[in-house]
Amino acid sequence: MNNLTWREWRAVSVDLSNDVTTITTVPCLVKGLYVTTALSAHDCPIKNGSETLLTAPASSAVGYSLKDEDGMRFTTNVIVDPDNAATGVITLLYRVLNQPW
Hints:
By secondary structure, the chain is mostly beta strands.
């Protein structure tokens, strides 16, 4: 992989009805999230290990977004951990740090 692609941001769609979803198990930067299907009446925490660093509020409408222009550092992993009864879909934008490509 060349130097122009390894630093690109990755987008992943997460269906919250699947409950806990591990996005990556290595350190990364999270640039933000975008709601693509409205959320149910449950918050959607995005965690670094057991610590919540971002939260999409309950009942967020399509188009709601959270952004950090430089990327928020997640030092261990990125886990989307909604309530067991949550519904909705978010797109998460992230970049893995120190990937050995």
